[in-house]
Amino acid sequence: MPVQLSLKKAIYMALAFTFLLWIIKSAETLFGFSLHTLGVYPNQISGAIGIFTAPLIHGSYEHLANNSVALLLLITALHYGYPNTRYWVFFTIWFGSGLGVWLFARDAYHFGASGLTHGMFFFLFISSILRRDKRSIVLMMIAFFMYGGMVHSVLPREPGISFESHLFGAIAGFICALLLFKKDPKLEEPKYAWEQDGYQDDDDDIIGDEWKAEQPVQHTELDHETAKTNNRTLH
Q: Which of 55, 64, 84, 178 is the most exposed, having the fewest neighbouring CB atoms within 10 Å of its CB?
């Protein structure tokens, strides 16, 4: 049975996760310690912990603020538009992007939620192409209007930005879309009256009946006038 769709619930989920990230960053600042070692460090056993924790850690408030707006929009879209697969998609992107970074990225600590945001964006984008229903297309258009630049940010741009997180998040989102796009309910299309079975237009019936009733009367009057004329002619 499909899960009920709720925009309000989707917004709450996005707010709760984003708020958690701000609590973690605030605690890091308040107590004067750094959590950067909880990021992914490629090809090191100790760095594998970041596969689970890296999306929760941010290097600065600016970094967190930039990701927060994207998280609010994309988590809401994912949870609202894909109720049956939202958790599978979210955590597959989480762990898939982290694993890809751990296996193939540059030697440095990689952390932040940008792998998640890129993964969700690519999932929404590819799913809408495959599903072609109104809800998924509208959600994709909103996401693309706001964050279409994510298509380019999977490539190397600045040394201090982990494009690897973007890239492997996008790959994970792409794979999720290919495997799961059929699993969620489509928006039910409204039917107009004439598309429904057994539809009958009452107005047409009334016009038809009136036409049938009027014709004999008109012909009868005409026949009487013709008969009178003929009678006068004969006399």
A: 178
Q: How far apart are CA 117 and CA 76, in angstroms?
A: 12
Q: Which residues lie closer than 8 Å to 182 by C-beta, 6 or more apart?
A: 131
φ, ψ for residue 109 (rounded to 5)? -80, 130
Count Cα neighbours of 185 within 13 Å in the Cβ-side half-sphere.
10
Q: Are 41 and 103 in contact (CB under 8 A)?
A: no
Domains of the chain: total: 2
Residues 97 and 169 in one domain: yes
pTM of the model as a whole: 0.78
CA 187 to chain centre: 12
> What is the domain range of residue 212?
193-234
Q: What are phi and psi of 40, to 5 degrees?
A: -85, 125
